[in-house]
Amino acid sequence: MTDKDKIRKLKALEPASYEPIDLDRLVIYTTTELEELGVELSLENIIVGAFKLFPKKFSLAGYLEFPDATRVEKCLWRCKGKKRQWIGGKTPHGYLIIDKTRIISAQTEAELSNIELKKEPKRKRLRRKEGILKETTDSPAYSKYMSGKGELISEADFCYLLQGTLDSPRETLRENFVLLKKFAEALEREDVLTFLSWLEQRFKYFLNNNSK
After folding, report:
1. Distance separating alpha carbons of residues 19 and 60, to the nearest angstrom
2. For 138-169, where are the alpha helices, taking DSSP H only?
3. Fewest C-beta atoms under 10 Å: which of 44, 62, 75, 101?
């Protein structure tokens, strides 16, 4: 099956579910959806993929049956910029999914599907949550904590755990921390929740410092 055939299978989401979400996050979500389908992350594929999933947001003004390529390209340009660094790669060679891409996509999926849904989550959502929690338990911070050396966890270790750096906006780090706690709660990972609660106390001043 070609990439075109795979993209044609994408179903548009309900406009009400994505209307409040900004364009950049929708494009990032599109890239991970395409990745799951095994589609190459070329600019053209992302343009069509975003249009297929979110036609109300990515259609060309006056020609609603066609995608607005410029709108998607601008989103990717912002997402690649130093301020966000949500995705890797370049237009001529294709884009690359990085850790931050998965975090942003998971946040967006939570907004799209309402993470508080009472229905049993789909296996795809579970896989993403499990993957992100595995990154948590594979982190240097978790290793130090489990070996009884929690006091050696640095601010840099903490930021790395949250898919950020010491230069990342604290608001972004707080959002990622809240998301990790929600995933741990959803998967009933008491070990991870205990670890995160400990981190929250240790780094509460750092996390709530709005100087960055």
Report:
1. 16
2. 140-146, 155-161
3. 62
